[in-house]
Design goal:
8-stranded mixed β-sheet; 9 helices; 8 strands; elongated
Length: about 220
Amino acid sequence: MATRQLLGELALAFEQKSGSTAAFESVGGVDAAQRVAKGEVFDVVVLAADAIDKLICAGHLQAGSRVDLVHSGVSVAVRQGTPAPDMSTSDAVRQAVLQAATVGYSTGPSGVALLRQFQLWGIAEQLNGRLLQARPGVPVASMVASGEVALGFQQLSELLNVQGIDIVGPLPEAIQITTTFSAGLPASLLDDPPRREVVQAFLDFMCSPEADAVKRRHGMSPV
């Protein structure tokens, strides 16, 4: 879901450039990986790099087909109009988490890394009953906007342009959580060279300098 808007814009730009139709179906990462593993047919799959690697190892995607697209970092949000906590240092973030009534985090790799950070800080037990994991496909930003959580952690791309929230800043570099999103190709493309050629052209476009400005506008960094 973090790449939803980015991929939609890149698909449209590729259509205009090449005349080939491209469309993404965006769902939660867990759901997407399960659908690929069950044999649902796609021309290209975009997920966190480790999820792509697992699908390759299991034979669901072509060996050697992984292409890294973007790096995506985590930012913090509060409900619009709420006083912004200090996010300038690791200690400041720790204090903000301890003082928050509720903390929201995602189901993806960034959420796993965040929970690991809480354990490293030794505050996991103190947060019992105050941590709320977003349901698959549900943005943490919407939970912040509704007041369901007081402090939300999610990749910047999913917080941008969401009504009802204030982005108070990225995590400081010392504890920043960066996810690499990658593309992989299904084995079925090996039997369809003309289609593979079109898909490869799309991947080349998404990795080209021409796409860099779009990636940055969506809160991500080109690989």
